[in-house]
Amino acid sequence: MSLLPDIGLITVLLASGVRLATPIGFAALGGVLAERGGVYNVGLEGMMLWGAFGAAAGTYLTGSPVVGLVAGILLGAAAGLLLALLCVTLAVNQLVAGIAINLLCAGLTAFLARATFGLAGGGTAVSGFAAFPIPYLSGLPVIGPALFSQDPLAYMLPVLVAAVAFCMYRTQAGLRLRAAGESPRAADSAGVNVTAIRYVSLALSGACAAAGGCHLVLCQVYIFSEGMSAGKGFIALAAIILGRWHPVGAVVAALFFGLCDALQLQLQFSNPLVPYQIFLILPFAASLVALVWFNGGTRQPAATGKVFDRESR
Amino acid sequence: MTRLRGMLVGLRVVAAIAAALGLGSILILATGADPLKAYTALVHEALFDYWGLSNTIVKTSPILLAALAVIVPLRAGVYNIGGEGQIYMGGLFGTLAALHLPTLPSMIAIPAALLCAMMGGALWASIAGLLKAWRGINEVIVTLLMNYIAIYVVSFAVSGPMIASGAPYPYSDEIPEQFRLPLLMPQTDAHIGVIFGVAAAVVIAFVFARTATGLSLDIVGKSPTAARYAGLNVKAHIVASMASGGMLAGLAGGIEVLGLKYRLFHLFSPGYGFDGVVAAFIANANPAFAPLSALFLGALKSGASVMQRAAGVEGTVVDAIVGLVVILVAASLAWKGDLLVGLFDGFRLKPVPSDQPNPTEPKQ
């Protein structure tokens, strides 16, 4: 098979790239919400896994993927609140707390999956959301299948990004969020409840990351397996930096990683003689190279990672 | 006074672990099993049974070294979450050395192979250190991403260039006898690796407490600005501490191959690097406590399978309990004794802050 640019191939590549980018995009959006509010969310990986489990368990128990989606997102929000309790109230080091969340989610989902789906450990397929091609638009050449023949959750992502971007830059709530991450002391003096803002932003962050996990289960593989987030939450952390802490930028960066992932899958299939591990490395290596390449000139919100204590000076 | 505080620190961690085990027993109850029976079986098997104890020791040694791999860079304020990847590179380099070095007596062969393993880990970790020091790139994200790359590199190596002839699935050739670590407990798997871990913990505790190196690491970690004023090369400290961490994790990987597995294969480390992160947190980043916290995790892991046989509890419950332990220990470490004071303060009346500027305070 030749690797020359072939329109059919590119069409397939774009479509699967968008599909694979969607979970990373949700997680990256969640990460932007958290870090703009002043807290690192290293727990994105665990929250995706947690959301994926919630989606699978909710769907399995009720038969309805809508219930599964809601369950996954609610569990994600709860994990976000736990992170907020650790980071904001107890002032645990934010990286430590995020890693703790990852470990808790990995352990609990493995255990709960066996308890829910039986000893086989999540070998049970659940129903999910089918692709929903938009009439006429999905027939467009090259970009049609990528943009207009996706599943409902993938359509939700750009809407959500637009909403978050609008709220963040055009509303008072968004201003408060950014102030909490940039200068909590000034925000506090202006009467903003920094603690409350950070709790809300982390709950939303967890919900977004979990929605990414829901996409994995309900729109991609229709099954829960242990550790299925497989590093996507960490790639999302890179996407946040590449997207310069802007919701649109982060999701565009996620799209880039999704395309890398799609490319590596296609290269794997078209080059069966080359060891597949070389291609599996691609998304991770691309994240690293992109971090090194574009890191110059970016700046994270000034107070991200720092504990805010009203009482101290 | 400091000693007393240290003891209190230890105690609150013990309390957190007890609370996590308590929550874990709710999980066990939820599956319809008897928590007391499960825990008794776990403790007995992991610590008071010859074979079980050997299994615990086998699991403790990589966890201990991986924990130290987190603790050393942390002293300089750098987070090494890449222990898992460094273990893989250590295993790769150690195996390469064992398979390609000429026939040597064990006294030379084993140190040479372990040295190569340490180099592998150090190289892998120093990439993250260099990127952190010179480009300011977040080392947490870099080390996390590099874990996955290392795992795939080893997977590639054992399914391609290093695959044993006629192997049914990807693994390397067996390493020769003279490279294998001596056993610690006869007829078991327990090898002398744990001695390396304990020795490293003692040395690191001494370096941290008594030497200029420890002090300068501390200064770099606590205040890079102060370190620069003191004439310390902050960047070099960051890279060196990362590389030292990588060396320790690489040693863990080398020991795993030379002491237990005797060959390299895909996913040869079941997440010891991440267990090391946990052990480091439980030990509150204190190298002197690391052997204890590693032993605790090693015992949990080795007792996991017996819980199923003895009490009908899935071994995965141990993973969940470890997660709970981490959350609660992390929370307990945040408490520096002033939480209760803060609670009492809440009941007292606070003076109303005055709007008058303080005359002694200079205006900006």
Proportion of helical residues of chain B: over 70%
Contiguous low-pLDDT stretches of chain B (5 residues minimum) are 337-364
CATH topology name of chain A, in short, is: ABC transporter involved in vitamin B12 uptake, BtuC
Taken from the alpha-carbon principal axes, the silhouette of chain B is globular
Distance between the termini of chain B: 40 Å
Q: Could you give the count of β-strands of chain B? A: 0
The largest pleated sheet of chain A is described as: none
Q: Give the distance, in angstroms, between the N- and C-terminal Cα atoms of chain A.
A: 66 Å
CATH class of chain A: Mainly Alpha
User: H/E series of chain B, N to C?
Assistant: HHHHHHHHHHHHHH
Number of helices of chain A: 12
N-to-C series of helices and strands of chain A? HHHHHHHHHHHH
The largest interface is: A-B, 45 and 45 residues
Secondary structure topology:
The complex is a heterodimer of chains A (313) and B (364).
Chain A: H1 7-36, H2 44-62, H3 65-89, H4 94-117, H5 143-148, H6 152-170, H7 172-182, H8 184-189, H9 194-221, H10 232-242, H11 247-270, H12 277-294
Helix pairs in contact in A: 1-6, 1-9, 1-10, 1-11, 2-3, 2-4, 2-9, 2-10, 3-4, 3-9, 6-7, 10-11, 10-12, 11-12
Chain B: H1 2-30, H2 35-47, H3 50-75, H4 83-100, H5 106-135, H6 139-159, H7 193-210, H8 212-222, H9 224-229, H10 234-261, H11 272-282, H12 290-311, H13 316-334, H14 338-347
Helix pairs in contact in B: 1-13, 2-3, 2-12, 3-7, 3-10, 3-11, 3-12, 4-5, 4-6, 4-10, 4-11, 5-6, 5-10, 7-8, 11-12, 12-13
